[in-house]
Amino acid sequence: MFFLVAQKCLDQISDLILEEIPKAEYASLLNDYVESEFFLIDGDSLFITCISEEKLQLGQNLHFFYIMERFLLDLTSKGGKYVIVFFKDAEHVYLSHPHLLSLRTTMILHLQNNTDIPIYTEFSNCLEHEWQLFLKDRYPYFLIVSDEGLNKSQTNFINILIIHALSKSINVVLTSGQESDTIRVYGYLIHSIHKNYIRLVLCAVTCSLGLQMYREKFKKKELTLQEATDLIRMYCLSVVFLSHLSLSQRAQVRLINSDWNKEHKSHEFLVLKYLATDKSSWEVDLTHLPDLSDNLLWKNVAHYCEVENDQGLQLDMGKGIQRDYVDLWNIVSEESYFGASFPLRETTRLFLEQKHSLPKDKKTKDLSIAAQMMRMIHVLIGKHQELLQKHHLKKLAKCLQYLGFENLAYTLSTQVILTEKMRKETYMGRPARFQLQCMGHYLFRDERSDPDPRVQHFIPDTWQRELLDVVDNNESALIVAPTSSGKTYASYYCMEKVLRESNEGVVVYVSPTKALVNQVVGTIYNRFTKKLPHGLVVCGVFTRDYRHDTMNCQILVTVPQCLEILLLSPHRQEWVKKIKYVIFDEVHCLGGEIGAEVWEHLLVMIRCPFLALSVTISNPEHLTDWLQSVKRYWQNAESTMEEIPNSFTTARKGTRKAKIQNTKKKSYTVKLVLYGERYNDLEKYVCSLKDDSFIIDHYHPCAALTVSHIENYGIPSDIAFSPRESIQLYDTMVKVWQEWPRVQELDPEEFVYFKNKIIITKADARKYEQELKKELTVWISLGQSEKVTKMETAAQNIFRNVKKKQMIRLLCFNEFIITLMKIFRRVRYQRKGMLQKKLARRGIGYHHASMAYKERQVVEMLFRMGYIRMSGRAGRRGQDVLGSVFFYDIPLPKVEKLIKSNVPQLKGQFPLSISLILRLMLLAAKADDKLDARAKVLSVLSHSLMTFKQPKIEEMLKIYFIFSLQFLVKEGYLDEEGNPMGFTGLVTHLHYHEPSNFVLVSFLTKGLLHKLCQPIEKGSTVFSEDVMETLVLVLANLFGRKYLPACTTEFKGTFSQSKVFLDDLPEDFAAAVHEYNSKIEKNFGCFLLTTTKLADMEQEYQLPLSRTDFTGKNDDPSELTSHLMNSNKNITAVSPFACLSGMMDEDLFSAVLRTIGVNAKNATLLWLKKYDYAERRMPLNAYALDFYKHGSLIALTRDNWLNEGEAYNLLRDFSLMIKAIEISLGELCDDENDNVVLAFKQLSKGYAARLHPV
């Protein structure tokens, strides 16, 4: 019976994992917070992944270690911080494979002795108590693990590890499908599970096993079966509570002083103790799963049942909790009936020893009135002291004395005496503590008092004046400053300057997202009005799906990809020359996963000055040096162009307007402006739901720090405390270490910058914060780590419920109700229009890219009308005094990572592609100003951020460019003079989709699309649904390539409307793809062979991570040696470690020399079938074809494992792609009745019609 139930549990766990894996997000693993992210690698999963490498021959151990170290180096070189864990129990899997057990042991010893990676081997399995403590202490963000073992037992072991990690709020990353490029590692990320059924399944199986074994195995019992059943009922209810309570609610759980009875201590986990002694098979370790329970919560349930319920307290547990509890109990008693779910107790047995009563909450004073009084004193003394007379000072002193600050009062006047009545009503607080704790957000900032004539509405700080000087001098600048600090004002000053100077000049604002485009446009319309000649406007917009007044505006707001189109368009260069300034907002996107290279292209192609704004750049000096090198290039290039007669650029100077414009000397300087201080503090809150109440708990930043983090990385520079959080930290430090030597020195009343000061400034508070941070690190260096650990726990307990009502009000609709109703009429026919309207009535508005255009527009209109926008701009200067950040439905470990993690350095992405090179050649050949165009092309080719100060990588890119040109000439896209021809227009139009754009052209040239696109009858222009569906199938295999993890093919569920897994291409189309790939392999293979001269062969003979050198010595030759090593293999470009498994130069794409700086992902190959490390095929998601057939977005979310927003974005991109092909083919084909042109026109219209209603 026991083993049947255990196997049933394992099968349930396997099914749960198969339900979660298809929902995995294919994401960049080390994207935003790489420097201090911490994650785990399961050592046996690493072993499985490397030993399963297709080209590895069994017994070639050195090749195995090379593969393993390359895997780890890929993570280490990109900033990953991780440890590797080998569980003891996993050894049993290899007992029947001694050669694998030996290799695994060697692997552990090698990693321990030859690398700096922390290796843990002391844990038996993931369910033991020590492992739970380790997870609690280290809080890993994710676990890298395989989804399949070498046999069934190992797969079960891994499944339990996965489900345990997910239930502990630890994300899981699969080794299957993991890939990398120059600066990123990608993988399938399964987000931690917060759904109820995980705990319920584990609880149900364990309790069922426990009760059955209690009845069947044990004859001498001090608890009766009915009493044990009562105990299990209460335990089940506590587990259900865990599924319904947030961590912030559990942190407020009542403290039950009663202990479990001794008899209970002996028997509560009697079953677990029995099973722990039985090591016959792995399945028995499942009984440790109740370790996921909360003992204090269980005791609370028992206290309620044994004491409060017996005293007459009858409380409704809630419909949801009661339903889940009944369902859970039914599962527990499924195998053998143990009674009904209610009542919770059928016996009178007491399981708790009754002790003291529960502590009562203390009441606190409302000090808001006192804070306002002190604030007025600050204003009068700090800003108007020269106007104050003696009697004024006396009154102010009386106020200070009334507040209880007699020492401060006497600094103003010594003649104040309080009456006894007044003395009784004073706020007896200490002045420094009071100012920090109650009015920290009102403390004076260091601000200048001298106005700047360039600014009308406020007095700019010194660093802001520096920005204004940059614009006035036509200089460029990289500006790194916190959000809402005031850096954006320089952008609008720049716009104002361009508008003021002429009617022809253009300023371009580059936004990272379309959502931000709309917001900026609204702000510009509110800020600027100007009377312009007919046909010109102030502001224009250009995004992928919307353009308005793009070429006839003075301020263009756009996204990077669209500005790149304009800069590379041969016939838009006259307009490009009108650009006077470019503003790059959030320029740190230069280090992003998608489109990073586009930001590079823009920065190196523009000739005008620029402002590059960012909040998060960790290496701004390096970026500034690179930008300055680009400007020096343009200084030399423009000087050369001016010397060449009859050039287009020189000719323009003949006009009077050009002469006027050239009277100002052009600047090529790039300045770095750094400002690290937030004007207003940010305080963090964790939000949760309790019954119908919305709970908001304060989260102290120190709760995110650990001793190990401070030891390894220090306290992150961007972690800041509000003044009251500094007080909380000091109080906690005093409580933890009562003999602390500096307790008096750092007491707020004694601190040197606070003592006897009526006005404590923000700068004073920041100095106090820095002293406390410094002291924390000193504690660790003095061996007081244990106390810091206690402080971490105490900081986490600073969570206190602060407000239960509506603290956040995004939108208020009591005013302008008629206007609002008119606005919401715009979305009355939108799919989510009614929901948006209902939420807005409750003060909630949301805005994101997946919304319909009109839905987004409504929110943008409300924002421009003055309603509060919260996200992204908390603590805005001039509008807020304090910023509040709310974490809603985000796991606590993720909150901690967000708070303490640093941002990665900007290193640059691989900058070139064959499509880009074709676009550059098109610009150089067709542009009106050839010199300018060629200068732009050379700038793109020679100024990659990745190659900056890296001459070998720069040389590699030159070779890549040459071979790309060779391919374009061979395939008929360029003639021998480099002029574009053939289908260049179509390929460049679809440059987003390389290599699918080149494959589509091969289908056209081979007549495959014409063969497919046959109308329903001769002379007709209509095509059957079969033709349309086949055409979508072809396009989905090219342009809708979203892979699913390999194990999804094992999913046992049924799909209601979708097919889910995309069918292969028809045979003739597949053959054309194979032919295309052969050409690319040949061309790119030659490129790789050529670049091998750039390899560092000294490093190639070392293991990548440990640097263990295997160069060795060539001993005196012997006949036997010559005989054994006599091989004519071509191995010039393949790693010598891979050669041990028989790999040669024809295996370049699997084992090219790693030090040449390029990998197979840079080859424009279109793999028809993709396999993971275990040679399992990874299927393509058929979302594009499924939607065309059923037209249901809901079906895609239900069957195709896509969330609604992602599905909508994918479908919209697919529809835009079809439209782009339709337009390009119409421009290329002289015959408007060509069947392929007509088919794409029909498909474009049909797909858009299906997408429009959603």
Describe the model:
This protein is 47% helix and 9% strand. It has 51 helices and 23 strands. One of its GO terms (cellular component) is cytoplasm. Residues 468-635 form the Helicase ATP-binding domain. Keywords: ATP-binding, Helicase, Hydrolase, Nucleotide-binding.
- What's the story with the biggest beta sheet? 8 strands, mixed
Mean pLDDT: 82
Shape: globular
Sheet-strand content, in percent, reads 5-15%
Number of strands: 23
Judged by helices, strands and strand pairing, the structural class is: alpha/beta
What is the helical fraction, as a range of percent? 40-55%
Poorly predicted segments:
194-198, 262-292, 356-362, 421-427, 650-663, 798-816
Number of helices: 51
How far do the termini sit from each other? 52 Å
Topology:
Blueprint: H1 2-20, E1 25-28, E2 38-42, H2 43-51, H3 61-76, E3 81-85, H4 98-114, E4 119-120, H5 129-138, E5 142-145, H6 152-167, E6 171-180, E7 185-190, H7 196-216, H8 225-244, H9 247-250, E8 259-260, H10 262-267, H11 270-276, H12 295-308, H13 319-332, E9 352-353, H14 368-384, H15 390-402, H16 406-412, H17 420-424, H18 431-438, H19 462-472, E10 476-480, H20 489-501, E11 506-510, H21 514-527, E12 537-543, E13 546-548, E14 553-558, H22 560-568, H23 573-576, E15 579-584, H24 596-605, E16 610-614, H25 620-643, H26 648-652, H27 656-661, E17 670-674, E18 682-690, E19 693-699, H28 707-713, H29 723-736, H30 762-781, H31 785-796, E20 801-803, H32 817-824, H33 833-841, H34 853-864, E21 883-888, H35 892-900, H36 914-926, H37 930-942, H38 951-970, H39 984-989, H40 996-1005, H41 1008-1012, H42 1025-1039, H43 1067-1091, H44 1097-1100, H45 1119-1124, H46 1136-1139, H47 1148-1151, E22 1170-1171, E23 1177-1178, H48 1183-1190, H49 1193-1199, H50 1204-1228, H51 1235-1251
Parallel strand pairs: 2-3, 2-5, 3-4, 5-6, 10-16, 10-17, 11-14, 11-15, 12-14, 15-16, 18-21
Antiparallel strand pairs: 1-7, 6-7, 8-9, 12-13, 18-19, 19-20, 22-23
Helix pairs in contact: 1-6, 1-7, 2-3, 7-8, 7-13, 8-12, 8-13, 15-16, 18-29, 19-20, 21-34, 22-24, 24-37, 25-37, 29-30, 29-31, 30-31, 36-37, 38-43, 42-48, 50-51
